[in-house]
Amino acid sequence: MNIVRILFSPTGGTKRVADILADNLGESAGTIDLSSAAEDFSAGQLDAGDVAVIAAPSFGGRAPEIAVRRLSQIHGQGARAVVVCVYGNRAYEDTLVELADAAGKAGFRVIAGVAAVAEHTIARQYAPGRPDERDTAVLKGFAEKIAGKLSGGSMAGPVLPGNRPYKKGGGAGLVPKAGSACTACGLCAQKCPVQAISQADPGKTDAAKCISCMRCVAGCPVQARSVNKVLVGAASLALKKACSVRKECELYL
Ligand SMILES: Cc1cc2nc3c(=O)[nH]c(=O)nc-3n(C[C@H](O)[C@H](O)[C@H](O)COP(=O)(O)O)c2cc1C
Ligand code: SF4
Ligand code: SF4
After folding, report:
1. Do 49 and 161 have their domain in common?
2. Do residue 215 and residue 98 come from a single domain?
3. Is the C-alpha dihedral spanning 38, 17, 110, 5 positive or negative?
4. How far apart are CA 59 and CA 64, in angstroms?
5. Are 92 and 188 in the same domain?
6. Same structural domain for residues 159 and 191?
7. Both 45 and 131 in a single domain?
8. Which domain holds residue 58?
9. Relative to the CA of 174, which of 94, 110, 206, 227 has its CA 20 to 30 Å away?
10. pLDDT digits (tens, 9 = 90+) for 212-240
11. What is the pLDDT of residue 172?
């Protein structure tokens, strides 16, 4: 089976989960990186024999708007798809259902859904080190079950958790800033999924464009970018109760 990975993963947690599933489903047939601001996604074409692993993180219980918009430009052309939502151990609410709807509109046939946990990229004390060994074993088991459904030729869609209309979306409002250690190398501006950082002056970030994905913070080679510690502290406190009990991976077939 040819597996195409279609990923929005600003800081890599979603990619780690998707890779475990895809590696255990079949041969890699390439990756479409929805985090890239430079790509022409309408050039992405699959065919009915392909299988796609379509993965995105949960941002506020929703699929990131930019990921949905870019996914909708790809031509699924009847390829079967596994939709994967990765969240920071709070909740994923309408993310999986929204991702499945977007995949369906792009011409994919969704045959499975997976929800999995990775480190919370804003409040990093939650779900550290995940996906861990236990998650990996569980995800490998999921891949086996999905492969069984695929090889049986089933086109049946799973019943996914979540509501329509989706819950109200909205940004986290945490816009990272460059500190004095910044060498103006421009890497963060190059990698920002929504081009919110000025190429000419990486010290300048367009707050209206920023989706608080934390890619620039995680990827700065000299750790020069950060978010306001007081705001992160407040967010961490608000998340404490919901995030402290370990959530397990889920499969919907
Ligand atoms: C803006 C933003 C909003 C988030 N909202 C949620 C959420 O609603 N529920 C949750 O459990 N985790 C939430 N998280 C955590 C991410 O879903 C989680 O860390 C995910 O692994 C990030 O994916 P990535 O590593 O591929 O970037 C949020 C993270 C960010 C940056
Ligand atoms: S990646 Fe870091 S050092 Fe490079 S421009 Fe961005 S903040 Fe500055
Ligand atoms: S500026 Fe905002 S959107 Fe761009 S990488 Fe940083 S956090 Fe993400």
Report:
1. yes
2. no
3. positive
4. 6
5. no
6. no
7. yes
8. 2-165+247-252
9. 94
10. 999 999 999 999 999 999 999 999 999 99
11. 79
Summarised one tens digit per residue, pLDDT across range 93-134 is: 999 999 999 999 999 999 999 999 999 999 999 999 999 999
Please state, in angstroms and rounded to a whole number, the distance separating the CA atoms of residues 41 and 34: 8
Residue 136: CA count within 13 A, CB half-sphere: 9
The residue to mutate among 190, 220, 223, having the most atoms of ligand 2 within 8 angstroms of its beta carbon, is 220
Q: Is the CB of 216 under 6 A from ligand 3?
A: yes
Predicted TM-score (pTM) of the model is 0.98
Q: How confident is the model at residue 170 (pLDDT cuts 50, 70, 90)?
A: confident
In terms of domains, do 150 and 193 share one? no
pLDDT at 44 over 90: no
Ligand lying nearest the CA atom of residue 203: 2
- Distance, in Å, from the CA atom of 229 to the CA atom of 232, rounded to the nearest integer, reads 5
Give me the pLDDT at residue 38, please. 87
Same-domain check for residues 20 and 141: yes
Q: Where are the beta strands (DSSP E) in the chain?
A: 2-7, 27-33, 51-57, 80-87, 109-117, 177-178, 225-226, 250-252
Query: Is position 172 within any domain?
Result: no
Q: What confidence score (pLDDT) does residue 154 get?
A: 86
Average pLDDT, the chain: 96
Domain tally, the chain: 2
Residues 184 and 141 reside in one and the same domain? no
Mutate to test the pocket of ligand 1, among 86, 121, 241, 247 (most ligand atoms within 8 A of CB): 121
Whether 185 is in a domain gets the answer: yes
Residues with CB under 6 A from ligand 1: 9-14, 57-61, 86-91, 118-122, 172, 212-214
- CA–CA dist 1, 12 (Å, integer): 25
Residue 192 C-alpha to ligand 2 middle, in angstroms? 11
Tokens 């800033």 appear where? 177
